[in-house]
Amino acid sequence: MDINQLRCFVAVGKELHFGRAAQRMEMMPASLSRFIRLLEEDLGVRLLNRSTRNVSLTSEGAIFFDEASKLIDQFDALTIRFKGGLKNERRTLRIGAIDTAAHGLVPALLNMFVPLHPNCDIHIIEDKTINLIPKLKSGWLDMIFFRAPQVIDASINVRFITRESCVLAVPMHHALAGRGRVSVDDIKNEAMIIPDRRTRPHSHELTMSIFKYSGLSPHVAQFAEEKQTILSLVAAGLGLAVVPSSYRNINSENVSYIELTLDESIKGLPLSIAWQKGNEDDYLREMLKLLNDNKRELTEKL
User: Fold this and answer.
1) From CA 239, how far away is CA 252, in angstroms rounded?
2) pLDDT tens-digit profile of 31-78?
3) Which of 89, 105, 252, 257 has the highest count of CB atoms within 10 angstroms of its CB?
4) Which of 130, 133, 134, 124 is CA-nearest to residue 101?
């Protein structure tokens, strides 16, 4: 069953005459009759009563006529809508972002984007990198801000943005809480809350490398997956944690953040943007342009 068969049937249903219906459709009566026959065979239902003089709708045909007419109207409206363009209609831009980007870079970027595109609805999904990538590949998301894995899927484009700096999260009443800056040597004997390696591989490796560079191994008190869990464990006095600097913007009671003195060879957490190859959406191009033109302003506090 296709749209042309439906058009032929509706034309016959309106005219109740094959000759007039064929004229309406600008086709030969024999061709029109064949379309109707193929439609009935496909459905396994007789839609028309035929005689040498009269054509009428069967009971099933009358029901099918009403539904087919609605479908044709919807099909034609959809065609007109997209051929005419969607420039004046509200559209949705679906953005995925890891927690730090969702609280830092993305809001700042949207402050630049929204005034330029007031008809755009923004839908933001905050999730981990391992969950965002499949949603991007499936088309459910238009772009993602994430920590790119070592192996990048060939179906997506990735653009590096910056490396996020880190700070040390400590309980409010910890002996180090009053310090403005600490070194790895200051925390070598402290219990540490370490991000889960499977779900937060970059954060996990960063914490481990900070200690490893100084010839040390962290005293692991707990592995944790969610950022709020990590901060809650710190607040409860169960350990310290190396976290992205943007965590300071999260309302976390009983947690203080201290600058970390690190060797220049210790790099921060990578932040990138990704989108599907072949995606030529205007909103996506505008977002990438804003990010490129205002990169310094957008990343200087990360």
Assistant:
1) 15
2) 888 888 889 998 999 999 888 778 889 999 899 999 999 998 888 878
3) 105
4) 124
Burial of 258 (0-12, 13-18, 19+ CB in 10 A): buried
What interhelical angle do 3-15 and 18-25 show, nearest 10?
Answer: 130
Residue 91, amino acid: R
How far is Cα 216 from Cα 218, in angstroms, rounded to an integer? 7
Lowest mean pLDDT among 77-81, 174-178, 208-212: 77-81
Quickly tell me which residue has 């044709």 as its tokens: 72
240 DSSP assignment: B
Contact 52, 19 (CB under 8 A): no
Long-range contacts formed by 204-212: CB under 8 A, 24+ apart: 206/166, 206/242, 206/266, 206/268, 206/269, 207/241, 207/242, 209/266, 210/184, 210/242, 210/260, 210/262, 210/266, 211/184
User: Please, is 119 exposed, middle or buried when counting C-beta atoms within 10 Å of its C-beta (0-12, 13-18, 19+)?
Assistant: exposed
Q: Enumerate residues 6+ apart whose C-beta is below 8 A from 114.
A: 120, 122
What backbone torsions phi and psi does residue 289 show, to the nearest 5 degrees?
Answer: -65, -45
Calpha distance 120→185 (Å, rounded): 50
Place of tokens 């755009």: 120
At residue 81, the pLDDT reads: 66
Nearest to 116 by CA among 277, 293, 273: 293
Nearest to residue 299, comparing CAs of 143, 104, 96, 125?
104
